[in-house]
Amino acid sequence: MSSTVTFDGVNLSDPQEYESQYLIETNEVKLLSGKVSVHTNPNLQFKATFKCVTENFSDISNLLLKAGAKGTLVIGGESHINCKIIGQISVKEPIFGLYEYTVSFAEETK
Predict the structure, then answer these.
(1) What does the alpha-carbon distance between residue 37 and residue 10 come to, in Å, rounded to a whole number?
(2) What's the pTM?
């Protein structure tokens, strides 16, 4: 991935992989008649996960400082407002001094 990614002003270092989802709240109910009733909410929720690589642990520390903060996630110029870091930030050090980390974000529905 060659796009620049920032969250609340913090750059994600060298994002290697990117997965996004647009979630639709859905409730399916099988009726006694055998038919299925489907209800959906028109509000979409955006989620994104990035796998990044850095040689500087402070890049990860800067993201950790944003835990709980609501901010704008910018992916290659496309802004997603009211996002938060969700789940965990997982960190691996496959080679001494090289850190791989994964971080996920979710946008509040509008």
Answers:
(1) 44
(2) 0.84
Q: Which range of residues forms the domain containing residue 15? A: 5-27+41-107
* Inter-residue contact 106 to 47 (CB < 8 Å): yes
Tell me if 34 is assigned to some domain.
no
Give the pLDDT score at 2: 56
Distant-in-sequence, close-in-space partners of 56: CB < 8 Å, separation ≥ 6? 13
Cα 16 to Cα 32, 34, 38, distances in angstroms: 49, 47, 37
Q: Is residue 33 part of a domain?
A: no
From CA 72, how far away is CA 82, in angstroms rounded? 6
Average predicted confidence (pLDDT) for the chain: 92
In terms of Cβ atoms closer than 10 Å to its own Cβ (0-12, 13-18, 19+), residue 110 is: exposed
Residue 35 included in any domain:
no
